Amino acid sequence: VCPDEGQPFEDLAKNAINDLIMGDQVELIPEYKDRYGRLIATVYVRKINISEALIKKGYALVYPEYCKKSFCSDWYNLERAARKQKLGIWSDPIFNR
Fold first, then answer.
1. How far apart are the first and last CA of the chain?
2. How many beta carbons lie within 10 A of that of residue 94, not counting itself?
3. Cα separation of 13 and 11, whole Å?
4. Residue 70: its pLDDT value, please?
5. Looking at residue 96, what is its pLDDT?
C-alpha cells in the first residue's frame, strides 16, 4: 500500500510509479474487490511486479490483512531491507520506528 493523498511521500510514491510505468503497457491480474467495490489487482509492467518494486524502493508497505499469498513473506523481507536502508518512506522517523 502506497501513501494516500495528503500523506508524507505521496508525491515520491507517485513519481516512482510513473517511472516504472511511463509509456508502457500494464498487465492487470484481478485478485478481488475490496469492501468499497474497488478492484484489487496485481500490476505488471515488462514482467515487473509493480507492488514488489515499490516495496523494494521503500514507497509501499505490506499490510498483513491484504497480503495473504505465498509471496508475501518475500515482500516482508523486501520491506525489512528497505526499512534497514532507510529508503523512501523509511527515511522519515515517523515511519521508521
1. 18
2. 9
3. 5
4. 82
5. 67
Task: Pull the grid cell for residue 91.
Answer: 527515511
For the cut 70, the answer to whether the pLDDT of residue 51 exceeds it is yes
Residue 66's Cβ-count burial label (10 Å; 0-12, 13-18, 19+) is middle
**Residues 65-92: pLDDT tens digits?**
777 778 889 999 999 999 999 999 899 8
d(CA 94, CA 23): 34
Q: What is the pTM of this model?
A: 0.81
DSSP one-letter string for 19-76 = HHHTTS-EEEEEEEE-TTSPEEEEEEETTEEHHHHHHHHTS----TTT--STTHHHHH
